[in-house]
Amino acid sequence: MSISHPRLHATAYDELQQREEWFRAVFEGSALGISVVNLQGHVMEANAAFQRMVSVPVDELRRIPFVTLGHPDDREHDAALFRRLVDGRLSSYQLELRYLRADGGTFPARLTVSLVRDEDGQPRFCVAMLDDLTQRTRAEAERDGLEERLRHLALHDPLTGLPNRVLLAERMRAAVDSLAHEPGARCAVLFLDLDRFKNVNDSLGHGVGDELLRQVAGRLAACAGPADTVARFGGDEFIIFLPRAAGREQALAVAGQVRKALDAPLQLGSYETYTTATIGIALADGTGGSPDDLLRNADMAMYHAKAVGSVLAVFDGAMHRAVMERLGLETDLRAALAREELRLAFQPIVALATGAVVGAEALVRWDHPLHGHVSPQRFVSLAEDTGLIGALGAWVMGEAARQLAQWRLELPGAAGLEVSVNVSPRQLRDPGLVQAVATTLGEHGLPPAALKLELTESSLVEDPATAAGVLRALKRREVQVYLDDFGTGYSSLSSLHRLPLDALKIDRSFVSEMDGSSTGAYRGAEIVRTIVAMARSLGVRVVAEGVETREQLAALRALGCDYAQGFLISLPLPAAEFEAAFLRGDTPFTWGDPLR
């Protein structure tokens, strides 16, 4: 016999009531839409969140089949899962689907439906929970949009909006790979380098330069077909890639359109200017080669066009051989510098008033172990292009100073000898040049006037402000500067007046015109006369280069030129021969008599 205790019954009742209140609070306060659905699929109860999501009040919900709340295209799948749940083949299911709003729109949601059983395990009802995914979907869309924008930024040039090198490489790789499966198909690359872009940047500012690039980009894009790619390769370089080129003729036709498009003036704010482009073209088929090879070949063709003064060149095998030879020569030049395989030759400079050798120009020479004598014009320009000119110039200056110091120390006749060395435009832009000259003089115990620096007119006009600053710094250290190849058309009297120069070297082209009695000889003599008069007004000396005949020498002396050098006096000589001929000779040099 059991005895029920009233207090125990009250406690159980209280706990049940508390659980019901807790469930009701969760049910009503949940941000999830929750509904209780009978086994026939009709809503028995729904919380406020569920009613708000489907925009249907609970009284109406009780009259609507549960699965009809979803989008018509999603109902069949939902209904099939619900039947399997009620039949006991599923304990729950979850899917993402769309629900209808009162305004006819839809929203994405995640539906989770679970079967609730009684104490005997028999199905009683279902609980459906609805999670509105609108915010998540919007966040995903924003993320996808951000990713797309980031991808666009990663693959396009921010200034012009054109594809950049990364996207260009992707498209070229796909096109080149497909060529192998299409016999006879070809692709082409046009490599464009804008001419005189640096002048616009330097004179009008980077903002104007950027606008020029944007306008050029638009004109180039207009020249390309829908399947072609116009890319900014970097700086003022652009690429036009033709993934399916009919051949050389089509590439040339596009190049012609580009040049025509660039003929029209560019309006850059308040400035009107023009630009042109040098174009290199390379073609490829499916027989081999990579996108990098194609770009390299087009680049070679562009530089070849610049080198020969053309506006356009199409790559061929000879260009590649020339580039490989140049690359090999660069490697050999680096080795020659490291192993001190170079040597100096000295060409005497004479005072026309006395005939005495007062100085020499130090000229670098290279006898290649395989190729023999390599012309200075070839390897010095190579050094300038590859950045080796700094090391080469430092070696020339140091070796010339060493040799001069040795002559001055050992030979009484060389006590007042001076040596000049050439300084390239790149060296002139080196902020360490002035200190390097001072260090070289100090190491060899030479006075500043013993070492002359020869600069070309072109190096002074590239950056006049920097050049003037360097010249003034050299002047403060009493180092003398000669202006080489004077008269080639770069300098003006006003610019010369502001530069602290010590001598002008008349270009050999004017000296060579002075022979005979022709109009050309008269013109040459008048030019030299004018240069000498200009030098006198500036208080600087004059050196004539390239003297090859007695007539030239006599005319230069009559015109008041101070110094002369050239083959008439002597070829450039190795140090030992120069010493024997001019520093140890018993017979003094008589001007007008060739020595070599």
Key terms:
TIM Barrel; elongated; 3 domains; alpha/beta; 48% helix; eight-stranded mixed β-barrel; Alpha-Beta Plaits; Beta-Lactamase; 596 residues
Question: What does this protein look like?
Answer:
With 596 residues, this protein is of the alpha/beta class. It has 3 domains: 6-137, Beta-Lactamase; 158-315, Reverse transcriptase/Diguanylate cyclase domain (Alpha-Beta Plaits); 354-583, EAL domain (TIM Barrel). Helices cover 48% and strands 22% of the residues. It contains 22 helices and 22 strands. The strands form 4 sheets. It has an 8-stranded mixed barrel with strand order 13-14-16-17-18-19-20-21, surrounded by 4 helices. Strands 2-1-5-4-3 form a 5-stranded antiparallel beta sheet, sandwiched between helices. A 5-stranded mixed beta sheet has the order 7-8-6-11-12, sandwiched between helices. Strand 18 (480-486), helix 18 and strand 19 form a beta-alpha-beta unit. The longest helix is centred in the N-terminal third of the chain and has 24 residues, at 6-29. It is elongated, with a radius of gyration of 43 Å. Residues 586-596 have low confidence and may be disordered.
